[in-house]
Amino acid sequence: MSQVDTQLEETKAQIESEIPDDISVTDVKYEGPELVVYTRHPKEFAGNGDLVRRLASKLRKRITIRPHPDVLSDPTEAEGRILSVIPEEAGVTDLDFHQDTGEVVIEAEKPGMVIGRHGSTLREITQEVGWTPEVVRTPPIESSTVSNVRNFLKQEREERRDILERVGRQIHREEMADDQWVRITTLGCCREVGRAAFVLNTAETRILVDCGDKPGSDGEVPYLQVPEALGAGAQNIDAVVLTHAHLDHSALLPLIFKYGYDGPIYCTEPTRDLMGLLTLDYLDVANKEGRTPPYESSQVREAIKHTIPLEYGDVTDIAPDVKLTFHNAGHILGSAVSHFHIGDGLYNVCFSGDIHYDDTRLFNGAVNDFPRVETLVMESTYGGRNDYQTDQEDSERRLVEVINEAHDRGGKVLIPAFAVGRSQEMMLVIEEAMRSGKIPEMPVHLDGMIWEATAIHTTYPEYLRDELRDRIFHEDENPFLADQFNHIDGGEEERQDVADGGPCIILSTSGMVTGGPIMSWLRHLGGEEESILTFVGYQAQGTLGRRIQNGWEEIPVQNRNGSGRTDTLTLKMDVETVDGFSGHADRQGLENFVKTMNPRPEKVLCVHGDERSVQDLSSALYHDYNMRTFAPKNLETFRFK
Amino acid sequence: MSQVDTQLEETKAQIESEIPDDISVTDVKYEGPELVVYTRHPKEFAGNGDLVRRLASKLRKRITIRPHPDVLSDPTEAEGRILSVIPEEAGVTDLDFHQDTGEVVIEAEKPGMVIGRHGSTLREITQEVGWTPEVVRTPPIESSTVSNVRNFLKQEREERRDILERVGRQIHREEMADDQWVRITTLGCCREVGRAAFVLNTAETRILVDCGDKPGSDGEVPYLQVPEALGAGAQNIDAVVLTHAHLDHSALLPLIFKYGYDGPIYCTEPTRDLMGLLTLDYLDVANKEGRTPPYESSQVREAIKHTIPLEYGDVTDIAPDVKLTFHNAGHILGSAVSHFHIGDGLYNVCFSGDIHYDDTRLFNGAVNDFPRVETLVMESTYGGRNDYQTDQEDSERRLVEVINEAHDRGGKVLIPAFAVGRSQEMMLVIEEAMRSGKIPEMPVHLDGMIWEATAIHTTYPEYLRDELRDRIFHEDENPFLADQFNHIDGGEEERQDVADGGPCIILSTSGMVTGGPIMSWLRHLGGEEESILTFVGYQAQGTLGRRIQNGWEEIPVQNRNGSGRTDTLTLKMDVETVDGFSGHADRQGLENFVKTMNPRPEKVLCVHGDERSVQDLSSALYHDYNMRTFAPKNLETFRFK
Ligand SMILES: [Zn+2]
Ligand SMILES: [Zn+2]
Ligand SMILES: [Zn+2]
Ligand SMILES: [Zn+2]
Ligand SMILES: [Zn+2]
Known about the structure:
The structure is a homodimer.
Chain A: H1 3-18, E1 27-31, E2 34-39, H2 42-47, H3 51-59, E3 62-67, H4 75-85, E4 92-98, E5 103-108, H5 111-115, H6 120-129, E6 132-137, H7 144-155, H8 157-171, E7 182-188, E8 197-202, E9 206-209, H9 227-231, E10 239-241, H10 247-250, H11 253-258, E11 265-267, H12 269-288, H13 297-305, E12 307-309, E13 316-319, E14 322-328, E15 336-342, E16 347-351, E17 375-379, H14 392-408, E18 413-416, H15 422-435, E19 444-447, H16 450-459, H17 466-473, E20 485-487, H18 491-500, E21 505-508, H19 517-525, E22 532-535, H20 544-549, E23 554-558, E24 566-570, E25 574-577, H21 587-595, E26 603-607, H22 611-625, E27 628-630, E28 637-639
Parallel strand pairs in A: 2-3, 5-6, 9-10, 10-11, 11-12, 16-17, 17-26, 18-21, 18-22, 19-20, 19-21, 22-25, 26-27
Antiparallel strand pairs in A: 1-2, 4-5, 7-8, 7-28, 8-9, 13-14, 14-15, 15-16, 23-24
Helix pairs in contact in A: 4-6, 12-13, 12-16, 18-19
Bound molecules: zinc ion (ZN) (5 copies).
């Protein structure tokens, strides 16, 4: 009998000794970080006050109770009884019964009403039918990504259970190392922006944090081939942690499954879905541009299948000696500051991921309050000594001016925008301005992946700013459902209609004018002197967006008839730039994040910024707060303990 | 056909195009770093002026010419002709013909006379008999280590040729990496003395530098198990470089053969022999103390079999992108400052190993002159701010006083000494003092491994200080052959005789009174008030030597009758300490080594010293010479390029 089996036997005996004699335990298993307890008496478990809570705190594990298959009531019968327990206003849209685990997945428009106060309605359901309920939200805007992910996971249910059991046994294995240390190896995004990837390594455990690409570079990928990472075999990685879905953090994650990785990815649920959306698009773009992508869509599915979603604040065992906790990072939907507690009080490392320190319309500001933290690995995108940004209030005022100006002369406002994050922030700004009468009512067209990304945002309102979340919960106030918003889903024909029509606002990808429907919009509107092309996001060196900002007026566009020939378009639109809508903290925000951090870390590694930014931030933090700061190079290893 | 074979074919064609038509080339092969050219015309090759030298510089390779087996003359006949070419004074003691390679190994008392001016005699031999001569020195003092190593290598000749061919093909493989970087990972001896071990890593190559133990620690071995070292499989190491034979650098080298390493060890020839002597003794001590040694003597033989000896100053390809050059380190016999030239001018790293900066009687001071060097990995044993040592001149004066005092009152001088290095230095000091009349003539007894270590020193006079080497070349002046020196090879009986006799000097191991014959000498002489126990080397914390220095007079000694019981001996001898004979540079020497280094390195990693020493030296070098200095921890990785 393996050591894990022995441990499970002991756990079972301990549970039995803690619960009343008339409640049976038929089996205990690990599923990922959770302990699953099977019983012939699920109703009694559910009925017995806070029995599960007491067990969880006694065993210091997350516990799920599941009915033994023998005692499951008939699904058809159970369905009626479940629906009678749940208030009708919850808006149940689907019930899905899984005989193998005794779970029933309830999809509802208002999950909160299915859960009830402190989970009372859920317990009532179990007491009524014996099945274990699980609740998911019905996307308020239909999202193909969300439904594809959910359907895929349903279809792969059996393999997923195997994965979870295997991962669970790995997490709860006996510690083998008799030594103790904590190290970080930098595989990318040091003295550069892009290809974020780190290895967090203890004597016992090796964790890969992020695995992104470097946009605009020619094949500069993270140094995965070194033995500290995957060079010694992908099976040496115990876990992967993904801070957020942006491609500079996620693009090459599916690749590691090609290299034979078979373990878990920890991230938030929205990060999982957005990663699916963005990496599939990444493959798409590569194919369209005639490049061979480094992996296939089947590896994206592997990544999704191996994802174990965690919520902000959940302290989760991910290895015998490592606990992970995610906290809101304020950067994009599901973005997480990732806190690692190592050993039994041995050491604490915090990876900021990308952060926004102040509240925005979309998100609360990044969390920087932890039980303990000795070392912080810190993004430095705007860490340069002059990287202070306009206040968002001023930026919004300026945007309102631009929109009014275009409207007044009968023109349109064309905004190139990133699908995830910045587009939703713009939607909120525009919706508010229109509602309060600062700009006239007019259609706002959303083109490219923006609509889909917005749908994913509305599926996870818990991850949005408090006020916004509350508005979405009250369907009639959901700003993303405002009438002005129109999804461009009619292709060129619809674009032509819009172009022929009156004043309007158009948000379209790609955000740096490097391809996508924005190119088509430039063909339609480029000649209109009354319209305004408005940049609201960072335009990287070498992109067409940056060139236009710099005054280029002769723009190469692909010929409309698909011949592959390139025409030259003379841009007559006004060009405006409205700064201040970044998803990244500016220099002040980065300093504030560290300054107000509780507790103040001893060491800071400044990463995810160009050479000047990381050096500036590193020396500023050293001088102002007397911490040990570093501006690492890629491929270095730091030992902390 | 493999890429290496293609390359060899091309090389053969190139050689053929460079040499006269009447000289044939039958085969070209790699043997380790050398290119071996087989020919049916060895005599013509040898006769043709500097043909080989021109080829070597054209091909930028070390070249050895060997006769095709078909054209070899009969060994018995050849023997006579060889002996007629070599001057009789050369003192040939053995001729060994190897039909497989056409080599004849000539062992002679005066190898220089077999070689002749610029190799003229060697060429004459080849022209006369066709065989390729190789010369080794007949040890002036018989050394079982040297003869065991030589006999073993003779016996394993065939496997060794296979190893060399394999290594040669590895070295000359095509570079695979399209990236370029240089990194060092610290596996031991950081902020501590002991368990020296580093990995020097390029995108193409991984080299292990040293692999020692930590004396006096309980099982603190280098971190070999991490993936940057052997964790990813021993086959990922391309080469091992050993700076010198001390156990804190060599003790665990044989272990890596147990882990499956099958590649080359580069070190000097005396380091190879001393490593054999010291690691076998290391196993012996472990066995005697009832500990299970981490490997067997068969792994020591593997290590010797895989050793490719290099001479000081030889620039040697050890990987497609790495050239290694050893330089005298002045620390012990064969100790080497190891210079790595990486890529085609990409980067240069120098490992000091252990060094002595000033000349001693035994060795010239450490070399610190290089074509280029950007990073220096520097020993710091005496790097502390107060680690200045007495001048050796003063120390010698004090030693003379002590010896005279003991002699005057009819006593003996008992000196615990390390077998390798310090003992030979003491022998030279004593011989000189006696010869010049500063102390009276009296016997000097050498006990333990000292005699054997001395014999190895005399086998390699090229590695000793210029003046000393010259004296050894003139046999009648070889100080180690002086009449006073007596090898204690008669065990307890002889020791009893010595103890019963008159004034004398005894040098005995172990150097820190932790075991060995010194324990027996303490039993014999411990009660003699007229005798003086004289410490001349560092006594580590926790050793009996240190305790005696601190005034302990009650000494536990094992009962003479072998019962295993421990008696207590009351020490009545005088106890003296004479500092200044260290094999390590003191603080001043370390600073001078860096200060006068040509060129001055940009970065210095201070290692091989306790926490205080490395910090002191690191900050002193930073402040005085404005270099970037580091005091690494174990298990860190530094990237330089
Ligand atoms: Zn991001
Ligand atoms: Zn990023
Ligand atoms: Zn040494
Ligand atoms: Zn030493
Ligand atoms: Zn040493």
